[in-house]
From TrEMBL:
Protein name: Uncharacterized protein
Signal sequence residues: 1-19
Recorded superkingdom: Eukaryota
UniProt keyword annotation of Signal present: yes
Any Pfam family hit: Chitin_bind_4
The organism of origin for this protein: Brenthis ino (lesser marbled fritillary)
Molecular functions (GO terms): structural constituent of chitin-based larval cuticle
Alphabetized UniProt keyword annotations: Cuticle, Signal
Record has Signal as a keyword: yes
One GO CC term, this protein: chitin-based extracellular matrix
Length: 125
């Protein structure tokens, strides 16, 4: 649990240090951690940097922490970078328009994959 709070502080520090100048902080909200392990925080600067995050403990056997958040800033080329993310027992899952996507599967390969998927399973016993 301590590592998670360390990561939260690290994300906040990285978000704040990406700016070239010192910007005034417009919003700095922190709520938690609570007894149940949940928390939320948000920070926004005058320069357009915004980062918010919330976390909660999932009530399963392992009591995994589910973290959801987003951050936004303007890149040096003027593009607004906005990233939504979740982090859970399966890892970090970012979503953003600026992230690269894989090329489409060529039609012949897709046809072969579709054919293989249509075959009945074989019993190798």
């Amino acid at each position: 649990m301590r590592n998670v709070y360390g990561i939260v502080v690290l994300f906040a520090a990285i978000t704040l240090t990406t700016s070239q100048k010192t910007d005034a902080i417009l919003r700095n909200d922190f709520d938690g951690p609570h007894v149940d392990g949940s928390y939320k925080w948000a920070i926004q600067t005058e320069g357009g940097i915004y980062h918010e995050q919330r976390g909660s403990v999932q009530n399963n056997e392992a009591q995994n922490l589910l973290v959801e958040g987003q951050y936004q800033y303007t890149a040096p080329d003027g593009q607004v970078i906005r990233l939504l993310y979740t982090a859970d027992e399966n890892g970090f899952h970012p979503v953003g328009d600026h992230l690269p996507t894989p090329p489409p599967i060529p039609p012949l390969i897709q046809r072969a994959l579709d054919y293989l998927a249509s075959l009945p399973p074989k019993n190798y016993e």
